[in-house]
Design a protein that fits this description.
Elements (H helix, E strand, L loop, with lengths): L16 H27 L5 E9 L3 H8 L5 E6 L4 E6 L4 H17 L3 E10 L6 H17 L6 E6 L1
Parallel strand pairs: 4-5
Antiparallel strand pairs: 1-3, 1-4, 2-3
Helix pairs in contact: 1-4
């Protein structure tokens, strides 16, 4: 039996069914934490934060990320089966987030990790809703996978 006509992904469709399920998991895990980050930005002079969405095969990514993160970073396991994690890096701007991602990718490669995808979103202002930030992170990640940007860091800033 052949594929249904609607099975082919159209340019206008942002997420397939699996990606929508992933969006739900990410929203469940991250939305309240981003609300807290916004509070800190508005009331406690926190400058910016970076969200990193990372996946890799053939490596214990959870252990590696847990070992590499700072005390102020927050690690979220989004999908253990798919080895998909989000790291929220407080008080981090584009340069620091990018250098951290470079170090992580090097360590994953040293541990013989494969099929590595890393997307980061820097958040410098609170006018995006937490939901918009999370969905932008996922959208950027999906586009990087479709464009086969394995072993690259795809970085976006939300001003």
């Amino acid at each position: 039996m052949g594929a249904r006509e609607n099975d082919n992904r159209s340019e206008s469709l942002k997420f397939n069914g699996k990606e929508i399920q992933l969006a739900v998991k990410m929203l469940d895990n991250l939305e309240t934490t981003i609300d807290i980050m916004y509070y800190l930005m508005e009331n406690e002079n926190q400058q910016a934060f970076v969200l990193m969405l990372l996946t890799a095969n053939d490596v214990d990514l959870n252990t590696l990320l847990d070992k590499e993160k700072r005390e102020t970073d927050i690690l979220f396991e989004i999908d253990k089966e798919e080895s998909l994690y989000v790291m929220l890096c407080q008080d981090t701007k584009v340069d620091g987030g990018y250098r951290f991602a470079e170090r992580l990718l090097r360590n994953i490669e040293l541990d013989k990790g494969t099929d590595i995808y890393c997307t980061e979103v820097e958040v410098r202002a609170t006018h995006y809703t937490p939901k918009q930030v999370i969905l932008k992170l996922l959208e950027t990640f999906v586009k990087s996978k479709v464009s086969n940007k394995s072993n690259e860091i795809v970085f976006r800033s939300l001003n």
